[in-house]
Amino acid sequence: MKTTTKIKTLLVLAISAFLSNTTSAQDTAVKNYDQGFKLGFGVSGGYATQDPYKLALGADARLQYDLTKRYSLTLTTGFTNLFVSEADAFPGEATGKDLGFIPAKAGFKAFIWNDEFYVMGEAGAAFSVTNDYNQTSLILAPSIGYATKYIDVSLRYEHYSDFRKMNNNGTIGKGVGQVGVRLAYGFQL
């Protein structure tokens, strides 16, 4: 065998050994990660993007299951209220009526930088609990956030596709949105 062929063969074997060692180290790190549940309680405030709603306030509980150090599944529920001022009302109503609902959402959270900054997407249903408004709506909610071991702060947009809104021409339409900030305290179970 020529010296050049021997060197190429040794180089290929060294690269193969390095790649197989790196792969098993990554597999071991994933297997050794302590998967588990976290529970968080949060409060949120925001601004409704469609009339007649103005402000939004809510509280929630989120159960999170860490698949790996970077990826988690979430289940969130709580209560949210969209406020209407007395001057704003739907056509045919004497006074404005707030919209209160219970969201039930499932989501996926992915940490994208330093295991602290994340993006998350949630989908689910919003069950209206307002006395005279019996409607259930689809919720879609993308968010970005920052989380430490105990604190979670996020900015999100939520869209409720089936809740009524007031169009620019004064007619009633569907589809209400909210931009909100959530502050939460969480811990391992």
How much strand? over 45%
Radius of gyration: 24 Å
Strand order of the largest sheet: 1-2-3-4-5-6-7-8
Largest sheet: 8 strands, antiparallel, barrel
Residues in helix, %: 10-25%
- What is the CATH first-level class name of the largest domain? Mainly Beta
Strand tally is 8
Output the helix-strand order: HEEEEEEEE
How far apart lie the N and C ends?
Answer: 62 Å
Structural class: alpha+beta
Mean pLDDT over all positions: 84
Shape: elongated
Catalogue the unreliable spans: 21-30
Count of spatially separate domains: 2
Report the total helices. 1
Second CATH tier, the architecture of the largest domain: Beta Barrel
- Could you say what the CATH topology of the largest domain is called? Porin
Organism: Flavobacterium gillisiae
Keywords: Signal
Protein name: Outer membrane protein beta-barrel domain-containing protein
Signal peptide: 1-25
How are the elements arranged and paired?
Elements: H1 3-32, E1 36-48, E2 53-66, E3 71-84, E4 99-113, E5 117-128, E6 136-147, E7 151-166, E8 172-188
Antiparallel strand pairs: 1-2, 1-8, 2-3, 3-4, 4-5, 5-6, 6-7, 7-8
Signal peptide: 1-25
Protein name: Outer membrane protein beta-barrel domain-containing protein
Organism: Flavobacterium gillisiae
Could you explain how this protein is built, in words?
Keywords: Signal. It comes from Flavobacterium gillisiae. This is Outer membrane protein beta-barrel domain-containing protein. Residues 1-25 form the signal peptide. It contains one helix and eight strands; from the N terminus they run H-E-E-E-E-E-E-E-E. The protein has 189 residues and is α+β, with helices and mostly antiparallel strands. The protein folds into two domains: 1-32; 35-188, Beta Barrel (Porin). An eight-stranded antiparallel β-barrel has the order 1-2-3-4-5-6-7-8. Strand 1 and strand 2 form a beta hairpin. The model is unreliable at 21-30 (pLDDT under 50).
